[in-house]
């Protein structure tokens, strides 16, 4: 059986998707301190990427890794919300899921430091 939420097509689907995305960004910004911290970090690093004397390709990579960390945080927050929706009871599988999301974010943040370091110091 198809989901009743999958019935929209065309422009209506695009408008609905944009609204859901906006709602997700608002929820992340309002409810996730880590997301707000990453937005602040991006608020510093993204303009800096445009001020640095680097090639267009290097600038694109500097920007991409910063945005990737935001994406990873959104996915991590979504996993945590889904796990909490299922049950607030402590369970090893829930802990693993949340820990893996946290590890993904640690890798994304390490990638920012590594890429920025290689480009600026390389």
UniProtKB/TrEMBL annotation:
Keywords: ATP-binding, Cell inner membrane, Cell membrane, Kinase, Lipid biosynthesis, Lipid metabolism, Magnesium, Membrane, Metal-binding, Nucleotide-binding, Phospholipid biosynthesis, Phospholipid metabolism, Transferase, Transmembrane, Transmembrane helix. Mn(2+), Zn(2+), Cd(2+) and Co(2+) support activity to lesser extents. ATP binds at residues 13, 20, 32, 80, 89-91, 98-99. Coiled coil: none annotated. The chain crosses the membrane at residues 34-54, 61-83, 103-121. Its main location: membrane. Substrate binds at residues 13, 17-22, 59, 73, 102. Its EC number is 2.7.1.107. GO terms for cellular component: plasma membrane. Belongs to the bacterial diacylglycerol kinase family. This is Diacylglycerol kinase.
